[in-house]
Amino acid sequence: MSTSRLTAFLLVAACALSGAVPSAASARTYVPNCGTTYYLDFKPSYWSGGCTGGALNVNKLRWRHYGNRTAKATGQAALRRPCGTNPTCPEAGLYRASARLYMSRPSSCRNGEAGGARFFSRITVRVRYRADNPFGYRAGWKRYRSRVRAYEGTCEYSP
Q: Cα 111 vs. chain centroid, distance in angstroms?
């Protein structure tokens, strides 16, 4: 192979490889936090179903698998204990339990800062309740499922 052909081949190969790097980075699939696509995050350390006092929250996430189509993590669920007038909700505290998080069904954003990004639209959380839990649930695993849609296709990255 002549020097000019080798140079041309290497130039074409370098261009092809440099074009692949940005597309691989943009192929990430993000976690919709707070139950919305306005808080997209990549491999966050926590997940919340609503970012409110009564929402299901999973802290201390350890990602067992994180791919473009599915993601699995384990962590600690933090659920507000039952409350009313005595104790008030802030006084009631949190019930903590083992949790498993599974995310799937990537969907795409059309608008916003994260327009074109992909996010997991199906979230399944399993919480392992102990026999002494304050909710009256049987001891064992209880499953919660949720679906996330991009409101008017708009997505933003988590601050």
A: 19
